[in-house]
Amino acid sequence: MKRYLIAGNWKMNAQLSANADLLAGIVPHLSATGAVDVAVCVPAPYLAQVQKICQGTCMNWGAQDVSAHESGAFTGEVSADMLSDFKSRYVLVGHSERRQHHLETSSIVAAKAQRALAKGITPIVCVGETLQEREAGQTEEVVKRQMAAVIQQVAHCVSELVVAYEPVWAIGTGRTASPEQAQTVHALLRAQLRAASANADRIRILYGGSMNPSNAASLLAQADIDGGLIGGASLKSHDFLAIVAAAQAL
Ligand code: PGA
User: Fold this and answer.
1) Phi, psi of 144 (to 5 degrees)
2) What CATH code is carried by the domain that includes residue 45?
3) Catalytic residue positions, numbered
4) pLDDT of 34-71, one tens digit each?
5) Burial of 180 (0-12, 13-18, 19+ CB in 10 A)
6) Distance from C-alpha of 167 to C-alpha of 151, rounded to nearest angstrom
7) Whose CA is nearest to atom 7 of ligand 1?
């Protein structure tokens, strides 16, 4: 039986009072999540606040990025050690917004995943093709190349990863991949992970890209979809809880 992971990605949407309100609308309702793990990935300045609110509850927390460097003269960067100070359980690496706006290459993403793992933080490795790449028939090649860079770097602990397939054209657009489109890519990724690790079946491969309460169940029911990475809908307590409930009901 799958153990789903539903992870919110708040992106750069947070303020002390809004965070407290949002979590107050979610956390107390999570006690009976059963076979579903739930997490929020928040902007680094709010880790202390979110840790304080969520510790001892069913809500896990994490960050949205981590430095590829260990420590030192890297102004503005946040290290894996710092994330660990706030007991971060997860960190997103290689989100398409980082790849696109901050020119993160797959080898930088791989280095970040390795830094996180070295500190016991689970990297949620995001991969996904742009619309142009999909239309050019390059989806498989692109996601496999992005995944391969990380597999190569963390060869000895591939099974510790969480992977998120996020087609760039579906992020924040309201345009979701169909369950079949998503499953096809998830199956490719699973096969790639299996070739790299004997324990690949325990790796959770999340889908992300306009997941919402009305499409969550059909996406999560797919054989190789083990959860969701939720952007917009993670900012609304009712929507986020509805997605968690959809996973619970499967
Ligand atoms: P979205 O974002 O749910 O708003 O499409 C998902 C993500 O970027 O992780």
Assistant:
1) -65, -35
2) 3.20.20.70
3) 95, 166
4) 789 999 999 999 999 999 999 999 999 999 999 999 99
5) exposed
6) 20
7) 231
Please name which of 220, 129, 208, 203 lies closest in space to residue 166, comparing C-alpha atoms: 208
For residue 248, the CA-to-ligand 1 centroid distance in Å is: 21
Reading the block at residue 231, the tokens are: 């952007």
* Ligand 1 pocket residues where CB is under 6 Å: 9, 166, 171-172, 208-211, 229-233
Short-list 188, 110, 177, 85, CA closest to 142: 188
Distance CA(95)–CA(145), nearest Å, equals 15
Q: Domain range spanning residue 49?
A: 4-248
Rounded Cα distance, 168 and 151, in Å: 21
pTM over 0.85: yes
Distance in Å, CA 10 to ligand 1 centroid: 9
59-113 confidence digits (pLDDT tens): 999 999 999 999 999 999 999 999 999 999 999 999 999 999 999 999 999 999 9
Band of residue 1 on the pLDDT scale cut at 50, 70, 90: confident
Ligand 1 atom with least separation from CA of 210 = 5
Structural domains of the chain, count: 1
Residues 6+ apart with CB under 8 A from 67: 74, 77, 78, 79, 80, 112, 115
